[in-house]
Amino acid sequence: MTTTETIGTMRALDAERGAIRVEELYDTDIDDLWEACTDPERLARWIAEVSGDLRVGGLIHATFTSSWTGPARIEVCEAPRHLLLTTEPGTQDEAQIEAWLSDAGARTRLVVEERGLPLYHLPFHAAGWQAHLEDLARSINDEPSAWRERWTELTPVYQAQQVG
Question: Can you give the pTM of this predicted structure?
Answer without folding.
Answer: 0.94
